Amino acid sequence: MRPSAHQLECFSAVMRLGTATAAANVLNTSQPSVTRALKQLEDATRLQLFERREGRLHPTAEARELMAQVEASFTGLERIGHAAEMILRRRRGMVRIGCLPAFAQGFIARATASFLRDEPDRHVSLVPLTVRDLMRALRDQELDLGIVAFEVAASDELAAERFTDINEIALLPPGHRLAGSGAISLADLAGEAMIAIAVPDPYRRRAEAIMDAAGARPRHVVETATSHGVGSMVAAGLGVGIMNPITALDFLGSGATMLRLKDRLPFHTTLVTPRRLERPGAIRHCIAALNAERATSLERVDALLGQTKSAKED
């Protein structure tokens, strides 16, 4: 006789919670029903799963081994359920966007707002991911499109096109001594407190290599996990950050200043989509909204950097 789903559910609950009473409360059933299901499971498997001592159930070694398989089975069922839900949502018009963490706040929120103004009945799912996880999700078609950090080549599975090719900027805290400068070099930041993404970020290593070559040492470095963390710490006055200008826009309202860098520090991103025979209209419209917001953001950046340049000349 095969174990039933009810028997396995009761078994899993008892293994996690320790008693049949607690399992019954979670499963919204009675304690005798749980106890009966455990006995039926033992009969079906011909294993002794619990030792009953002093009114408590103590799992045997066989029970722990079986539990590992039950958990794996439940995980598989959850994945199937999640996949079915995603198929249903996509049929109803969901757009699934993956994004590098640097763009996952202000930029993507503005682009999504624009998209939903034109298509208010759409559902949007946004997932910030690392490059490796984004590429895997796109290949597995778990996402409809993704903005990936760095340059990514197209393949048989994925279409790729350049999304940004912009120079990084210096983000200065409120009242910084260099705030009136038109443009600075990394060497000008010698002796400054710096805010940086924790290693092994390749953009950080690049900036540090340029500063090392110029003999420019920071006073100290505060590390954080994301570009938004860098921006928040700069806005709080903890130091200077080197970052992409689109993300930096989110922090200008708190008194931070964006300055052009003389050093060549390109920040590349790539728009990646799974190859399909035909790209659905919702995906095309979403990409158009992303492109439009990118253009708007870069116009703001150019205007702001132009203002700092004019202020220096005056």
TrEMBL record:
Keywords: Activator, DNA-binding, Transcription, Transcription regulation. InterPro entries: LysR_HTH_N (IPR000847), LysR_subst-bd (IPR005119), WH-like_DNA-bd_sf (IPR036388), WH_DNA-bd_sf (IPR036390). It comes from Georhizobium profundi. Pfam families: HTH_1, LysR_substrate. Gene3D superfamilies: 3.40.190.290, Winged helix-like DNA-binding domain superfamily/Winged helix DNA-binding domain. Residues 3-60 form the HTH lysR-type domain. Transmembrane segments: none annotated. One of its GO terms (molecular function) is DNA-binding transcription factor activity. It comes from the Bacteria. PANTHER family: TRANSCRIPTIONAL ACTIVATOR PROTEIN LYSR. The lineage of its organism: Bacteria, Pseudomonadati, Pseudomonadota, Alphaproteobacteria, Hyphomicrobiales. Belongs to the LysR transcriptional regulatory family. The keyword Transcription regulation applies. This is LysR family transcriptional regulator.
